[in-house]
Specification:
The complex is a heterodimer of chains A (429) and B (255). With 429 residues, chain A is α+β, with helices and mostly antiparallel strands. Chain A is built from 15 helices and 14 strands. In chain B, 38% of the residues lie in helices and 11% in strands. The chains are: A alpha+beta (429), B alpha/beta (255).
Chain lengths: 429, 255
Amino acid sequence: MTERRIKVDALARVEGEGALYVKIAGERVEKVEFRIFEPPRYFEALLRGRAAAEAPDITSRICGICPIAYIMGACQAMESALGVEVTPEIDALRRMIYCGEWIQSHVLHAAMLHAPDFLGLHDAIQISGVAPDLVRKALRLKKLGNTLMEVIGGRSVHPVNTRVGGFYAAPPEAKIAALIPELEWGVEAAREVALDFAAFDIPEDEEDYTFVSLIHPDEYPILHGRIGSSRGLDIAVPEFEDQFVETHVPHSTALHGHMADGSSYLVGPLARYANNFDRLSPAAQQTARDCGLGDVVRNPYKSIIVRMVEVQYAIEEALRLARAYVPPAPPHIATPPRAGRGAGCTEAPRGLCYHSYEIDGNAHILSARIVPPTSQNQPQIEADLHRVVSANTALDDAALKWRCEQTIRNYDPCISCSTHFLKLTVERD
Amino acid sequence: MAKPKLAVWKFASCDGCQLTILDLEDELLDLAEVIDISHFLEASSAIEKGPYDLSLVEGSVTTAEDAERIKAIRAQSKSLVVIGACATAGGIQALRNYTDVAGLTRAVYAHPEYIETLATSTPISDHVEIDGELHGCPVSKAQVIEFLTATLAGRKPRLPDVAQCLECKQAGTACVMVRDGTPCMGPVTRAGCGNLCPAVGRGCYGCFGPFTGANTGALAADFARLGVPAPEIRDLFRSFNAAAPEFEAESRAHD
């Protein structure tokens, strides 16, 4: 029997450090382990004793690519623990800066980290050799997302203007208005990039995923909603810990997320899209249809297109919010200390991100729990790899390795978040 | 002349400083014309072997394996420059230096025996000789551009080693300590972020770390006069640059 071992020690074009181990005996896949070697950084333990007001800034350092997800999850959880609610104007500004994060994070991943896989290239700079307009357009879109974050948050990596209760200062109306022309350009540009990606040679694959995301009756979910699944789960945010469990496996410093019955599930763009297609804007829905997508996408390689549909939606949303902008006054609500417990849950670019905290009467943190999207997706990534390797044992080692890496990148895995070093080892017996 | 070879490396970190390089949307393609990006795992799967002319290192050392890895990187780098608060001062994960790591592991992981880690998070300069530092959590885009431009031109980069207060004066930002009584780390924190926090009425939280000669004791006394309790004074100095010697000493004085 042929024994095959394929090894990748450090996976490229992902955020963080990880590896993959695959062992194949003949046609049979014996073992698949998606390994995360990112050194543990102990955020939950280190938060104990710190002020509740520090949680957004400290947890934003879990991930430089999606700091707003951590800032907003922590803010919501603390506001819930403190028993306060922000004004609609603050909430609208939060949604606008979160749109900025979706735009920059999705475009970074789709155009610069994932697209090279479909073109047989190594990076965006190589793509610029064959499709310079595509790369320039993508960079301009990414910059648009970053600019939104800078105008509202002060800077795009670890914004400083956000806080429990709202914002330190409301951005001036003129600065928000100045974003409008570029946002108007961005709606069409995102659509064009989505159509370009739809023309890629996309591998055939399908999986009957359990899609888990926020679900909101009136809007495509970013900051609000109940937690729901494509199999009928429908719970309030504080019930998360009853339905989802994390286990610790020897090959990873990230915890593995499972549903209470032990099954794996998927969070992220495909899940949001499947659970909330009707709440996308008509124009974003039209782009999806023009890209050949249905209301539910079960081919994980098409996540690159879904990300661009979400980019178009996020730009339309930011445009709508910018046109309707009313500076929140005051920019933040009062947050008097009290003892309490609170949970927060938002849609990070990579999917559901859950926070819960318990605080004492002086608003100091007693305990913290954070469940980032990549640790929830880790078992599903392994299941996808198992399926993809099984269906492609005819490929030679180099091609199979390429396909494995591409499969992992379908998830835009943020290993920094889930804790980090992806090493890929494929072993064939 | 051959293009200089650039490598970018990651240790324990959030990836935000590497991202700041990828966020050079207007400069990235031009940069690739004049620099050979030889090893940048977050951005490219094309990996060239060393030696490298310039290595940029993000992140802090928290495992025995990483303590060895940085030595190997040093050996193949003509110049090694550390970027960001993790690499220059241990980062937020250096809060572990003030506590018992075995206890932390038990708190986060069901099977502490699977986890191998050092008791401390330390800056790169504790392990190898370095040739330069870019500060900040994250580093500033403007400083990354200045540093790369200067390096390519063979001149010394212009990077400030003065207080954040100077940026307030230059920008005409009112002093939040004087006006609002808000504790501000600006008087001991290195300038370079672009005057972000005071400009939105917030006290600087020290993410660029101390400048050379910062008088932390005098500022801590000012905080006490404003009525800030000792544990809060300690935490102001013990955050994103928790292992910077000046901040570490001051935070320990309020334990």
